[in-house]
Amino acid sequence: MGSLSRSSKSQRPATTGLARAIADFAHSDGDHVTAIAALSLHRRSSPTDPLHCIFNLGLGIVAQGDKQVMLGEEVISYGTGQSMLTSIDLPVISHVMRASVQEPLLGLMLKLDSQRIVQMAAEMQLPSPARGATYRPISIEVLDDALLSAVIRLVKLLEEPALTDRLAPLVQQEIIVRLLTGPHGPQLQHLAANGSPGQQIAKAVAWLKQNFTRAIQVDDMAARVHMSPTTFRQHFRAITGTSPLQYQKQLRLQEARQLMLNQNVDAGNAGGLVGYESASQFSREYSRLFGAPPQQDVKRIRLAG
Questions:
Q1: What span, in angstroms and rounded, lies between the C-alpha atoms of 271 and 289?
Q2: Is the whole model's pTM more than 0.85, yes or no?
Q3: 3-class SS at 70?
Q4: What are the tens digits of pLDDT across the range 15-64?
Q5: Is 70 in contact with 123 (CB distance < 8 Å)?
Q6: For residue 140, how many C-alpha atoms fall within 13 Å in the half-sphere facing its CB?
Q7: Residue 91 lies in domain
Q8: Is residue 62 within 8 Å of 80, Cβ to Cβ?
């Protein structure tokens, strides 16, 4: 099993200000939505069990604590003072490794807009990635001072609701510019480079997210992004850590879980709404992914909350 880990102890930017800004807003454990639609803040007072989830195109930052993510067979660890860029929507297993009441995990997730990234890269006339350059759908880097400063300013805008709508887009644009020109830049440039495998698979993933309830043919998806079926399967697995059909299955099951949790849809209807024709198949695949049948899993989550 492969692993990717960067030490957060030898190089730690001054993230105290960011941790304080997050703590001022996120007073209790949980995932906190904010007045800035793309920004969520996160707090945990103890380590968590592994959780299946979808990471969207975005920037994750740990201001305090440590996390671990599994992408396919790869284990990725990151912690205080590090940033994680996810340059394509990915099904992962994520959990908090280090957190306590005295020193809770404090972090944030900022979703990024692929069209704004492509537009900004074009306006800046950034070079295309070198031929043969390795593309990583998740990259971990030490948080540099300039990016840290911009992120702190974005979080602190939550204290000024009268200014948030006008200033947040400007700070978000600055963050994209700093990502494109900083250590994460090569990975974002793969997304922006016309015709690159990263961009083509990103298009396929975007289509899958819009059409996951439909029966799909992998050959048709390959044709949609102008790849041969074999090449498409190879690039899809290399980038997302899974096959197109397994990716679709995870999208369906994640959506069914949210329907049951947030809209009180019963298990039988949830399976049908996300594209399952067989209730028994839905229950079987749900149990395999989440470790318990639908009703039992939802009850467990509610009790834990």
A1: 14
A2: no
A3: strand
A4: 899 999 999 999 999 999 999 999 999 999 999 989 888 898 999 999 99
A5: no
A6: 19
A7: 3-190
A8: yes
